[in-house]
């Protein structure tokens, strides 16, 4: 198969690495890719939202399967665009329709979907700028802390947890009246704060059948001890000890099944991944949010644990034959540590050469925000730069192996959290 993979992050490097393990892969193109994907596949200088350019490339290179990594092209309707073209109308694509992608593209849409189909989630109300007074009055009636979410896409940074009423009111005004997150906060979902332990469940679906992939816990804040600003993700661990068989069964019965049934009932064309952010409170799951693609950096911890042919999974999703696919999962632990540019998630300097080891024992190095400069050096280009995944029969081994490799990687002002996995280790000790 000739495959086109869209995206440029650590998630896409992990996808490429896993796809290339399949004997069914003939050629793999990554658009636009990064310095890591360039080493194992063929990068293509195409924007992920250049729909016409993507369409032409598919025709020119006789692409058999398109895999969409990030959410932006899905929310903007790439799948619908390709299906509307006569020569790509039946092309297998991993990624939902624009309506399906609205589950991530609009927090209000997803909350209404959950309510409609009986999926457990936090109580909420949605407000726009012309409802600011009603929104402020609503805040006064709620318990603290309270959660404010920009309705649209905000690169993982549009969620605020407000500890005081003053903070909540100020933040709501900034979001609605001052466009704190641009168009993304033209509507704001004000949501009950859910306490408990957070984790993510990943589901592959062809719209009818589904497979539950390994779960993961990620670390969103920049500082150790989960302090500081939210980021796109500073690390991940899989499996998660507090997500035992009984808990996963509850997730399947109460959340996965009604979600997949809801997609069918609402006539939403959905062939792709569903990332379900969950809160585990005393063994009961509630949905925090849906995302319509795999998470990053969770992908870098989840994909290495899939032992069956990953390209077979992707093809099953895209062709509606997922029920026939046999998913096999490794019992081993995977721990991912993300290395970022100094200053991230604020402003940071780019272009520093990265020193990488020639080999990584019991671990794998995934590139995210990297490019190769004119001198042939791999340099930092984004906020999140490198994701290192360590493996082990025990969580401690996976943690130790990840950090052993991280310590061999360096560039000017590089930063990473040293406590990834430590909270889970503390739970088990």
Descriptive overview:
The chain has three domains: 2-97, Rossmann fold; 123-192, ATP-grasp fold, A domain (Dna Ligase, domain 1, 2-Layer Sandwich), CATH 3.30.1490.20; 197-428, ATP-grasp fold, B domain (D-amino Acid Aminotransferase, Chain A, domain 1). A hairpin with a 5-residue loop joins strand 20 and strand 21. Strands 3-2-1-4-5 form a five-stranded parallel sheet. A five-stranded antiparallel sheet has the order 12-15-18-22-19. It is built from 14 helices and 22 strands. It has helices at 10-19, 35-40, 51-60, 72-75, 78-84, 98-105, 107-116, 132-140, 165-176, 245-265, 298-302, 310-319, 395-406, 422-428; strands at 2-7, 27-32, 42-43, 65-68, 93-94, 124-128, 146-150, 159-162, 187-192, 197-205, 210-212, 217-218, 221-223, 227-230, 235-238, 272-281, 284-291, 333-340, 363-367, 370-372, 378-380, 384-392. The chain is globular and about 60 Å long. It is of the alpha+beta class and 429 residues long.
Explain briefly what this protein structure is.
Residues 111-319 form the ATP-grasp domain. This protein has 429 residues and is α+β, with helices and mostly antiparallel strands.
Shape: globular
Structural class: alpha+beta
The total of helices stands at 14
Q: Tell me the number of strands.
A: 22
Question: Mean of the pLDDT scores?
Answer: 96
Q: What strand order characterises the main sheet? A: 3-2-1-4-5
Distance between the termini: 47 Å
Q: At the first level of CATH, what is the class of the largest domain?
A: Alpha Beta
Strand residue content: 25-35%
How many domains? The number is 3
């Amino acid at each position: 198969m000739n495959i086109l993979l869209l995206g440029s992050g650590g998630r896409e490097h992990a996808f490429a690495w896993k796809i290339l393990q399949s004997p069914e892969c003939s050629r793999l193109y990554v658009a636009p890719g990064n310095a890591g994907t360039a080493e194992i596949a063929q990068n293509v200088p195409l924007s992920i939202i250049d729909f016409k350019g993507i369409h032409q490339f598919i025709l020119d290179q006789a692409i058999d399967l398109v895999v969409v990594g990030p959410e932006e092209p899905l929310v903007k309707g790439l799948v619908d665009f390709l299906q509307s073209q006569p020569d790509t109308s039946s092309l297998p694509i991993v990624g939902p329709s624009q309506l399906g992608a609205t589950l991530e593209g609009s927090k209000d849409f997803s909350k209404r979907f959950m309510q409609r189909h009986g999926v457990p989630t936090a109580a909420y109300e949605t407000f726009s700028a012309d409802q600011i007074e009603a929104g402020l009055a609503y805040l006064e009636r709620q318990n603290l802390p309270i959660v404010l979410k920009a309705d649209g896409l905000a690169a993982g940074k549009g969620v605020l947890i407000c500890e005081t009423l003053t903070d909540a009111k100020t933040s709501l005004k900034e979001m609605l009246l001052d466009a704190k997150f641009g168009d993304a906060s033209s509507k704001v979902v004000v949501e009950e704060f859910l306490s408990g332990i957070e984790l993510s469940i990943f589901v592959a679906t062809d719209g009818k059948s589904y497979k539950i992939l390994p779960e993961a816990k990620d670390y969103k804040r920049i500082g150790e001890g989960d302090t500081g600003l939210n980021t796109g993700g500073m690390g991940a661990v899989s499996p998660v000890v507090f997500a035992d068989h009984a808990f996963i069964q509850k997730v399947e019965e109460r959340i996965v099944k009604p979600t997949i049934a809801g997609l069918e009932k609402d006539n939403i064309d959905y062939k792709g991944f569903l990332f379900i952010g969950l809160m585990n409170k005393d063994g009961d799951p509630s949905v925090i949010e849906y995302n319509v693609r795999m998470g990053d950096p969770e992908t870098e911890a989840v994909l290495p644990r899939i032992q069956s042919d990953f390209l077979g999974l992707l093809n099953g999703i895209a062709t509606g034959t997922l029920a026939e696919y046999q998913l096999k999962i490794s019992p081993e632990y995977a721990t991912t540590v993300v290395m970022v540019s100094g200053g991230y998630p604020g402003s940071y300097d780019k272009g520093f050469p990265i020193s990488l080891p020639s080999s990584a024992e019991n671990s794998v190095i995934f590139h995210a925000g990297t490019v190769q400069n004119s001198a042939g050096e791999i340099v930092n280009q984004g906020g999140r730069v490198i994701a290192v995944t360590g493996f082990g029969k025990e969580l401690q081994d996976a943690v130790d192996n990840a950090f052993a490799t991280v310590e061999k990687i360096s560039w000017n002002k590089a930063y990473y959290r040293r406590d990834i996995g430590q909270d889970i280790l503390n739970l088990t000790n």
